[in-house]
Amino acid sequence: MSSILISLAHFCDKHGPQVILVTQTSDKGTLGDELLLPDYPIDSYCESCLLHFPDNETTIRSMRSILHERPYITTQYSAVRYQLLNAIIRRSFSEETMVYDSLPNVFHDNVSGVNLVMGFKLYDENARGNERRYCLILTIDDKDEMSSTKILSNNWNFITGGFLKMINYIKDSHAKELERKTTSDTDKNGFTPFMGNYLRGNKSKIARNLIELTNDKNIFIKIHKWNTYLLDALLPRYNEADV
């Protein structure tokens, strides 16, 4: 089944390239139950890899929205495209051209389809190298390269602009959280905490997720909603490209 999906991934200090979430859609008029995830053990996930939806039970790792009679579902991983996404994530983070200043990168092959990747990084003294690396990926899972390339080129500004808005929101929220913590620690201790961290040589590394880095408990809900908006706008155009 050909489709478009959006993923958020990161390079975990402990586990390497990992999918944090993926947003997919099913047929119009259905509920997309085949995309929902059953309860599964999370022992193999560290805190920086886990997807958290607030106010849900700890065993719930799926979020569903119905827009224009079509279901859009965000999960920790894809039950139907698990191997595909893992291969895409590994390639995204291993590409020599991969950058983390939000510039788009595109790659294609017969297995993974067409992928548009936009990477970004966040400062974190608790991470290796004092930074955490992320990327947003739009995947057109279609063996027809011409059709996939057409939908990507015709909607380039819309897709890259949508990704950039989400990235900028995350980076701006992170910057505000850094400023808040710096001000708070300075008021308490009377010195700038970053100098103290530098002198300690970053000996201890702590897994942290986007909720902590942005101080936004709803960050994953916002990403789900934004992905839903992008996919809902692209799908009619994708179908037209096949005509």
TrEMBL record:
GO molecular-function terms, A-Z: GTPase activator activity
UniProt name for this protein: UDENN FLCN/SMCR8-type domain-containing protein
Gene symbol of the encoding locus: NCAS0A02210
Domain UDENN FLCN/SMCR8-type positions: 48-243
GO annotation terms (biological process): cellular response to amino acid stimulus; positive regulation of TORC1 signaling
Top-level taxonomic group: Eukaryota
Organism: Naumovozyma castellii
PANTHER family: FOLLICULIN, FOLLICULIN FAMILY MEMBER
GO cellular component annotations of the record: cytosol; FNIP-folliculin RagC/D GAP; vacuolar membrane
